[in-house]
Amino acid sequence: MERNNFFHITKTVGAMIELNNKTFTCPVDVSLSFFVGKWKILILSHLYHFKHKSYKDIKVNLPGISEKILVQQLKELEGNKLLNREIKSERPLRVEYSLTDFGRSLAPLFEFLSEWGIDYLKKNGIDYIQDQHLYK
């Protein structure tokens, strides 16, 4: 059995990996487990690009997400050591989120996905760089 700072690795069985009571087929499967769900990668990407965000700011930037799902996703990301939750004031309650060092280690992924998306949009007649003020 092996331990690192974040997770408990139980064993590897053939091509399968058991980690934190879950079985994975490969390292990509492990990586994707951090982003399961529609919103996690978007939450992390917003925090990467904007450094710190309040709960309200995150909610406003993710139209369509419910309160319940946002709270759940934030708790899971915090539990996976990808983001920090800091209480800025008690009354009124104001919470701010930011990426941990572990979360910031995903920077190349966010950069790649952003560049790929911008290129895809451009190939389909949308110049996001020129018109990005329209999307804020």
Automatic annotation (TrEMBL):
Gene3D superfamilies, sorted: Winged helix-like DNA-binding domain superfamily/Winged helix DNA-binding domain
Gene Ontology molecular function terms on file: DNA binding
Top-level taxon of the source organism: Bacteria
Pfam families for the chain: HxlR (PF01638)
InterPro entries the UniProt entry points to: HTH_HxlR (IPR002577), WH-like_DNA-bd_sf (IPR036388), WH_DNA-bd_sf (IPR036390)
Keywords: DNA-binding, Transcription, Transcription regulation
Limits of the HTH hxlR-type domain: 26-125
Protein name: Transcriptional regulator, HxlR family
Species per Swiss-Prot/TrEMBL record: Leptospira broomii serovar Hurstbridge str. 5399
